[in-house]
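Homework help board

Subject: predicted structure for assignment chain

Our instructor gave us this sequence and asked us to write out the predicted structure in token form, then describe one feature. I got the tokens but I'm not sure how to describe them. Can anyone check?
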Amino acid sequence: MTAVYFYRAILLKCRHRLLIKKRALPKGLVITQTLTAWVGPWGISYSGNLTPDSTGIGAWKEEQFFKVLREGRFKGLDGGRPIIPLMPVEGTVHYSNDEIKDMFAYLKSIKLIKNVVPAYQPPAQ
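My token output:
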């Protein structure tokens, strides 16, 4: 997978916002209009900043990116919590090393956007 295919996948996802909402609402999920916050049985999760800014993946090492996509670890940290169910790790575990390296290189090359993402909120007990 090259960066171009990754970019196309992101665009395709954006085009299907209404379809995502039509499928999510009957399952009891709440989604913001911009698809940046998701509410479900896992709590409230927010879309991460994937730009190379320090509020995003700017300080990440390639190994962390591999751990996110292969092991489903939050920020690719050993001992970190699992990432939220909305991240499709089941599909990314089969990406080749070259595909993951290409995705990481692409994300590191895009425009910096400073955006501090709110912390995950677990479900109320």
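Reply (TA_rk): Your tokens look well-formed. For the description, you could write something like this. The chain has five helices and three strands. That's the kind of observation they're looking for.
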